[in-house]
UniProtKB/TrEMBL annotation:
Pfam annotation, one family: EzrA
Cell location: Cell membrane
A GO cellular-component term linked to this record: septin ring
Natural source organism: Lentilactobacillus parakefiri
Gene name of the record: ezrA
UniProt protein name: Septation ring formation regulator EzrA
Function: Negative regulator of FtsZ ring formation; modulates the frequency and position of FtsZ ring formation. Inhibits FtsZ ring formation at polar sites. Interacts either with FtsZ or with one of its binding partners to promote depolymerization.
Membrane association type: Single-pass membrane protein
Extracellular side: 1-3
Family: Belongs to the EzrA family.
One biological process term in Gene Ontology: septin ring assembly
């Protein structure tokens, strides 16, 4: 029983403590809400509305002011009392034990404070916008007033520089002045919102006027002075050059000058109506057309001294090339009697003559044009540059043709020397063979020897013709030299084979009585030597048999032979050198 009593006492005590804790927490929640509400009162909107009212707002600005003021009254008359009721509800709920309702009231009170805070900030931002817009318009009014006064002074003081545009500029200035007055009135009457729309138009119009006033003087100066002076200068210069017998290709100077003058007049009228963009584009076109006329005059003026200087030079050049071609013709006619000219030398010479005649005719036509006052010097200058190039090409080809023909007599003499050399070489070859007293020569060798003799005889016949074909003779020389080199190799081989075969057979005869195989080989080799004149086969048969009998013996015979031959050749070379 005592235990139960103690338990009840403990539960009652715990409940009491919990209730006390809950009341303290509720009091703190109510205090926090109250403190949050006090922060709302720190924004002095009453003072700001009082300042805004002194701005004497009207129109759209006044409507916006009224909207902000009504919203502020709603804040004071509705939102603040609702917040006070919420705080009271939190405090009242704290006396009981309905925890859920207390928390709900506390959340509602805080949300009401947050909504009120957002409303205050929105009102404050709206008032600030009215202040800023009003301030901006005052500053814009001051700047526009300065710019307007400056533009008006410039129009008054520099009206001569605007030419026909002055009336339209003054009309623009007058329109701007009316808009400016409207903007000033709206700003001073306290309607910055309405003034904002007018300000945009006013800025655009003022900037446009300022742009025109900056661009027109230069355009007017070009059209009224610079272009006119340039047209007059070109007209004067053109007439002066024509008087000095200058001419121009496709001469349309009069039409071009009239077209430029008309274009100047058209654009002066466009200045009057302020078609500035179109005038700027047109002035560039006029400047380009004038530059082309200046260039045309300068081109003719610069070309004449070149033509006058080069006319004498080209005349001398033509004479030089023609004389050189005549000399070349005489030389070709002489050479044609003794040589066959295979490379169109005479035809090329005639072609040079035709080219020179064509150049000379054009040259003479241009001289006549200069004498008759009909010359277009820039065209003649270009023609003369081309003539110089053509004459240089002809002269170069003449030199090449001369170089190719001047060598013909020397080539003939070289061929005759080669013919004599070939004849002597063949005699020496025959003598070498005769000196070895060979029993005979193979048909192949005799055919090769006879073929070279025929080639030499054919060359000699070609050399004795009334007209020598150097190209054909050169080909024959190449063929003969090649065939003689081949014959020289065959001759050396024939003599070496014959000599070695004879020496080897003589050495092998020592073994005839004791070696029947060598005896048979020797007999066969001697038959090839004496009857068939196949010295290579004779040597092959006896050398193999001897090597079989005595290894290395033929190699020694061969080495001794070639060493002796080499020694003899060296001695002969020394004798010839001495």
């Amino acid at each position: 029983m005592l235990t139960l009593l103690i338990g009840i006492i403990v539960l009652v005590g715990a409940g009491y403590l919990g209730f006390v804790f809950y009341q303290r927490r509720t009091i703190k929640m109510a205090t926090d809400v109250y403190e949050n509400k006090r922060d709302l009162n720190k924004i002095p909107l009453d003072d700001e509305f009082a300042l805004a009212k002194k701005m004497n707002l009207t129109g759209e600005s006044h409507k916006k002011y009224d909207q902000l003021y009504n919203k502020y009254q709603h804040y004071k008359n509705q939102m603040l009392p609702d917040i006070d009721e919420g705080i009271a509800a939190v405090k009242e709920d704290g006396k009981g034990i309905n925890f859920l309702k207390t928390k709900s009231d506390w959340q509602s009170a805080n949300q009401a404070i947050a909504d009120a805070d957002a409303t205050l900030k929105e009102i404050q931002a709206g008032l600030a916008q009215l202040y800023d817009l009003n301030k901006q318009h005052k500053l814009a009014l001051e700047e526009l007033e300065k710019k307007y006064k400056r533009l008006r002074e410039d129009i008054l003081n520099k009206n001569q520089s605007f030419g026909p545009s002055i009336d339209s500029l003054e009309k623009m200035l007058s329109d701007i002045e009316g808009t400016f007055d409207e903007f000033t009135q709206l700003t001073k009457s306290g309607d910055p919102n309405s003034a904002e729309a007018v300000l945009s138009d006013l800025n655009h119009s003022t900037d446009k006027l300022e742009s025109y006033m900056g661009r027109i003087p230069k355009l007017y100066q070009l059209l009224s002075n610079e272009f006119v002076e340039q047209v007059n200068e070109i007209t004067s210069g053109y007439k002066e050059l024509k008087g000095k017998q200058y001419n121009f290709p496709n001469d349309h100077f009069d039409d071009a000058l009239k077209g430029i003058s008309d274009q100047i007049k058209v654009n002066m009228n466009k200045l009057k109506t302020l078609e500035i963009d179109s005038v700027e584009k047109a002035t560039q076109d006029i400047a380009d057309r004038i530059d082309k006329l200046y260039d045309a005059i300068d081109k003719e003026f610069q070309a004449r001294p070149n033509v006058e200087k080069n006319t004498t030079i080209i005349g001398q050049y033509i004479e030089h090339v023609r004389k050189q071609n005549s000399d070349l013709q005489l030389r070709l006619e002489t050479l044609d009697k003794s040589y066959v000219l295979n490379h169109q030398e005479i035809e090329n010479n005639h072609q040079f003559d035709q080219q020179i005649s064509t150049i000379e005719k054009k040259y003479q036509d241009e001289i006549n044009a200069m004498k008759n006052g009909e010359a277009v010097y820039s065209t003649i200058d270009a023609d003369q540059m081309h003539m110089m190039k053509e004459l240089g090409q002809i002269e170069s080809e003449q030199k090449d043709l001369f170089s190719s023909t001047v060598q013909l007599p020397q080539q003939e003499q070289t061929a005759r020397d080669a013919l004599a050399k070939f004849d002597l070489a063949m005699r020496n070859t025959k003598r070498r063979i005769d000196n070895h007293n060979l029993p005979g020569l193979s048909n192949d060798y005799q055919d090769a020897f006879a073929a070279v003799i025929r080639e030499i005889n054919h060359l000699e016949d070609a050399m004795n013709q009334p007209q020598i074909d150097i190209d054909d003779i050169s080909k024959q020389l190449t063929i003969i030299q090649s065939d003689m080199d081949t014959l020289e190799e065959k001759t050396n081989q024939l003599i070496d084979d014959a000599t070695l075969a004879e020496q080897t057979i003589q050495y092998a005869n020592r073994f005839i009585g004791s070696n029947s195989e060598i005896a048979a080989a020797s007999k066969t080799a001697q038959m090839y030597f004496d009857q068939k004149y196949d010295y290579e086969q004779s040597l092959n048969i006896i050398s193999k048999a001897l090597e079989k009998q005595s290894s290395g013996m033929f190699t020694k015979i061969k080495d001794d032979y070639f060493n002796a031959k080499k020694h003899l050749k060296t001695e002969k070379s020394n004798e010839d050198a001495g």
